[in-house]
Every structure is written in structure tokens, then in C-alpha cells.
Amino acid sequence: MNEQPYPEVPKLSPEDLARQKSRSKALGLLLGALVILFFIVTIAKLGGNVWNREL
Amino acid sequence: MSLATDSLIDEASRPLVSRGTARDYYELLKPRVMQLVIFTALVGMLTAHEHINPVIGFASILAIAIGAGASGCLNMWYDATIDSLMERTSKRPIPSGAIAPGEALAFGMTLSIGSVLFLGLISNWYVAGFLAFTIFFYVVIYTMWLKHWTAQNIVIGGAAGSFPPMIGYMAVTGSVNLETFLQFLIIFVWTPPHFWALALVKSKDYARAGVPMLPVVAGEVATRRQILIYSILLAPVGMAPALFGFTSLVYLVISAVFGGIMIWLAYDLSRKLEGDAARKASYRLFGTSILYLFVLFGALLLEEVVPFIPWRNLI
Known about the structure:
The complex is a heterodimer of chains A (55) and B (315).
Chain A (H helix, E strand, L loop, with lengths): L13 H33 L9
Chain B lengths: L21 H7 L2 H17 L6 H25 L1 H6 L15 H22 L2 H25 L3 H10 L1 H10 L4 H24 L1 H7 L4 H4 L2 H24 L5 H23 L3 H31 L10
């Protein structure tokens, strides 16, 4: 049985690596900002009710 | 099949990794259009005169802005071929080769769905539906259909860019009112003279790309006449919030003065048909139209946030 060869992994130029790094940084910051935003919005939506629960 | 995939942009010759930077993705969102959306949606939101948690208000405006950016991104995806043929748009991320059409499509769809769901969860589902409809209207009705079909493309399609004040108001109240409908009408009537002033200068670009803009289809003289008609119509529409008693005399004076300036510049453009003078008159009207909208909505914003406006009750 003939095995299919794996596709060749592209070699990244220094410019491509720099762009990839910039995208990764931006995506990381964006995800962090989303986590903070969702948390703050959740607290804002709950309002005073956040304390009205059985402990 | 999308225009983007059967275009000059050869997918097969693209590298397997993305070439785009974070800035390229940001440019896909049409940041200048987003600024206008944020500004006008904020005015609509403040018109509500109802208490809204500042965090929820901020997050709602953010969701509306991202929804607008997503529709801009999907517009760039679909029109990548046209953009590559026009000087004004040839450096956009897809025609320049920085971002593949497929990447833009995925990015735009993700942001569209995400912004609508987020707005529905934090505000209400009426406004989420309205945002979804606006994205659909801009991408499908305007970009995929009207833009390639009729010279009235930006007249009807301009509705998509005019909805934000109503969306901003609806995010707070879950409904629409006459005041925000008048704000919608101002942007709606403002769009044709604003866009056609630029289209006059770029008509060769549009002709090369096969887009039936008014100067290409009806000629430059007819376009100048239409610009003048819409500018004359814009003046009373711009004053309408004051005439209906929603604002003070200050707004009435400001809108009347700037409406008069728009009519004068449109009249000036209608008389200058050729050469550098015509080109300058087009750019002057285009630039002033941006200032017009900024000043009118700035005045509406101030009317909402400044507690005491002299002569407020004179109308």
C-alpha cells in the first residue's frame, strides 16, 4: 500500500515570522481584553443581585 | 461564486501561511466608517434619556462598532476584484495580497455572528436582530446586489450606514422613536451628495471596475444635478430635529448655516464642469459633507449632554 507523503511544511522567512508574531500578540491581547470585558459586563448585568444568593 | 475567488488574486500561488499583520486585519474593518458608526450610535443612545449602566452602554456601542466593521470586512472580501482594479482601493489588505479572501471571509463572519450574539446577550434581542439585519443589508443587498446593478446603489444602500442612531437608541429602549428616525433620515439624505462628490473624481476608476456609479451611467452633468437636488433636500432634513421640537434654537441655527453651505458648494460644483476647478469643487463638497455630519451630530450630542442650553425652550 502506497503511503501518501506528508505535505511539505512551508519554511517561514524572517518577515513571515515577524508578521506571525504580531498576529499572535494582537490575538492574545484581544482574547485577554474579551475575558475582562465579559467579566465586567457579567458583574454589571448582575448588579446588586450578585449579593442576593445563599452562601 | 464570490468575485474574490475568481479574481486576479490567485489563490494557488499564495503561501500556506498568512501574510497579514494585526494592522491589516484592523484595516479590513474600515476604521473610518466605524468611527462614524460609533459617533452616530452614541448620539442615538443618548437620545433615549433613560438610565443605562455605563458598562453596558460602552459594550453595546462596541458590539455595534464591531458589527459595522464586520460588514466592512465582508464587503472587502466580496469586492476584492473591484478593489484591485481601482486606484483608491488597490492597497486594501486583500488586493495587496496581505490577507487571503478566505481569511477575510472567516474573520468577517466570526465578527458578525459574535457581535450580534454579544449585543443580544447584553442589551436585548430586538437590537441584536436590527444589527444582524443591518449587516445583511450592507453585505447582501448593497454589496452583492445593488452596487453591481443600479446607479441608485448608494442611495438605497446608504440606509445601512444610516441605521446606527436607531440601533443605539434601540440598545437602551428596545424600540425606535421619531427623533432617531430623523437622525437616520439626515444620514440617509446626506449619503448621495457625499458619495457622488467623490465618485465624480473617481469615475474612471468605477468605469474600469464596471461599477454602475451615477457619473459612469448618467454622466457628470446629471450627477451634479442630483447632488444639488439632494443637498437642497438635506438642508430642511438636517433642521428637522429642531423643527419637531427635539432640540434648541442653537441646533436650528447651526443646521441652517451648514445646510446653506452644502447647497452653495453643490451649486458651485454644478457650474464647474471641467478641469482643476471641477476637481477642487468636488473635493471641497466631499470634505465639507464630512464636516457637516460631524457638526450636526456633534451639536445633537452636546444638546443631550450639556444640562443647560440657552434658548432651549424657544421652539
